[in-house]
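Sanity check

After download, print the first record. It should look like this:
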Amino acid sequence: MKVLDWGRAKNVLIYAFLLLNLVLGYQIWMDARETAGANLDFTSLADNTQRAMEEKGIQVLAPIPNETPKLPKLSYEFIEEDKSGIEVELEQPVDSKLIFSPSELADALQAEIPQIGTYRLDQLMAEDGAFVLHPLVDGKWPLFNVSLELFYSDQKITGYHQTPVRITTAEESDQQVLPASKALGTLIENFLPNDAIVKDIQLGYYGQLFNSDIQVAMPAWRFVLESGEVLYVQGISGDVFSPKSDKPGE
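Expected structure tokens:
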């Protein structure tokens, strides 16, 4: 009679259990991904938009915001003469996990980047080796045109690239921002390709860049696709912009 090797049997059972968990976890993730659209409320979309969405196989995996605040246009100017910005290596690297704790991150980098407390992390725009943050207008709306990059390596923030700007609000009165559902409808019906997947919808500020010291930005809905493409719908006129061309409707 063979003697049962309990140690070996226990290891086999543990590995089998872990493999089962991985398989089940992957299946749950796939199911959630496939049914995410069904769990979201698309009743705010016009009937023709919903039909186009179905015909083109477009998925929207992000909640459709219902906020339509009144916002002004704004202007901003580059503080540094070199508009390409400044790049600095930190003498004392900072723990990169602080990026997820805004107050602690501000405390750690306040001396290097005095305005960092007015920036917010943009997780969708993160690059290999760099976190991306945008300055906030009125503490809430990101200015997508301007980025602060925090470089990291070996779990430490080692430096940054910043183009400092001064933001001012135009004197004109606030204007009602068009609903996200209408902006999304414009994209679905006229701009998004078949099988496109919208994974994030966010309101902020965006404007075409000109060869000028003073730049203008308007309220805009930003749509991020699964492919990595980013599209902006101007919140007042409804014009569509792509950073690739920075021209409306392209």
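If your output differs, re-run the checksum step. Summary of this record's structure: Confidence is low (pLDDT under 50) at residues 32-38.
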